Amino acid sequence: MSFETLGLAPALLRALAEQGYADPTPIQAAAIPPALEGRDLLAGAQTGTGKTAAFSLPLLHRLYTGERKPATPKTPRALVLTPTRELAAQVHDSVRAYGKHLSVRATTIFGGVGMQPQVEALRRGVEILVATPGRLLDHIQQRSVNLSHIEVLILDEADRMLDMGFLPSIKRILGHLPKQNRVTWLFSATFAPEIKALAGEFMREPVEIQIAKPNSVAATVTHRVHPVDAARKRDLLLHLLRNDARQTLVFGRTKHGADKLARTLEQAGLAAAAIHGNKSQNQRTRALKDFKSGKVGVLVATDIAARGLDIDQLPMVINYDLPMVAEDYVHRIGRTGRAGAEGLAISLVSHEEDGLLRDIRRLLKQDIAVEEVAGFEPSRPLRVDDSARSRPQQNQRPPQRHARRPHVGNNSGNGAHPGARNRKPQRGGGQRNSRPA
């Protein structure tokens, strides 16, 4: 199957062809046809499989190939809600990239920055509005946005918005949208029963699509646990990073801990930055930009980044702390092993966390190899199945699946599928069959 067979407008096919994309991913092939038919969608697929293009392409086709509505030229016709600022910005970038030949009028609004530039953009007129729930409600209260002509509502990472407590805000926003002549598309990696119950309140006979089983992870990701005493986690992390110069995303549990860990890595001579909810939007944007460009080799993040970062070909994720909720492990690990690439997920686990590890293994329905690193053996063993344990290895380090590179100048963040940021053209014929993400 190719994009030509899906019935997309020539202008969209042209934009995709110019970027070297010909074949849709499974979620795109399954979701685009019913979306073009005007059906409501409840679409689930693993992170990194192309959900953004799966809704952006039919959205652009619907808005820019049908009859325009000159009576309300400045009023948004489509609303995309996302849980984080980073994801809102990335969805906006994707919409603009795919719609480059359609004169797309789109903007994004989120917190952490001033409202006035957003008010002015809305006043000039937009057709596609990408927003986080909190800041959108601010604009609704100030009457700087009119949502009465929305034709398409998209909730991206719907389960994450539920996890983050956005359900009351979403219900308030729904009260400002037209109930008739509107299609609704929900996209996410997983759909908990609460999400389906919510969907039942405002969707009409949605087409349900589930590309992979819930809470599954990409088969190309290798999982590994290194048991270690909590007091020695920092030393073990430094040991791993010094022996593997690949671009790495490190997850911590708290904002303060992420900042402290990033400072420790910098003091040890590693190019590192932290990203979390207490950072200003400018700080978060700069940290992500530096990480994608390779200026920063290690990005320390809290779970806010598990859904808000779109980084192509990220080779390694390290869980410095295990998440308190097992499902968050899936979303963290979804940053690596994207679009068929190999990835490595390492978790540093103290005996205090062995219960969290058991929850993760039950969720994944698979064993995770437990390997002690020579010199960092824990004083108390993890309570796990002995069949998953291997003997210590001297000078153990993650396997070198990619060529080692210095942190500075690492371009691992550049990718070859729609949705990638800071993309640079790749040479050779391999891009022709790449798929949008």
TrEMBL record:
It holds the Pfam family Helicase_C. Residues 380-389 have a biased composition (Basic and acidic residues). Its EC number is 3.6.4.13. GO terms for cellular component: cytosol. Residues 232-388 form the Helicase C-terminal domain. GO terms for molecular function: ATP binding; hydrolase activity; nucleic acid binding; RNA helicase activity. GO terms for biological process: response to temperature stimulus; ribosome assembly. Keywords: ATP-binding, Cytoplasm, Helicase, Hydrolase, Nucleotide-binding. A motif (Q motif) lies at residues 1-29. It catalyses: ATP + H2O = ADP + phosphate + H(+). PROSITE patterns: DEAD_ATP_HELICASE, HELICASE_ATP_BIND_1, HELICASE_CTER, Q_MOTIF. The keyword Cytoplasm applies. It comes from the Bacteria. Residues 379-437 are annotated as: Disordered. Residues 32-209 form the Helicase ATP-binding domain. Residues 1-29 form the DEAD-box RNA helicase Q domain. The keyword Lyase does not apply. PANTHER family: ATP-DEPENDENT RNA HELICASE RHLE (PTHR47959:SF13), ATP-DEPENDENT RNA HELICASE RHLE-RELATED (PTHR47959). This is DEAD-box ATP-dependent RNA helicase RhpA. It comes from Dokdonella fugitiva.
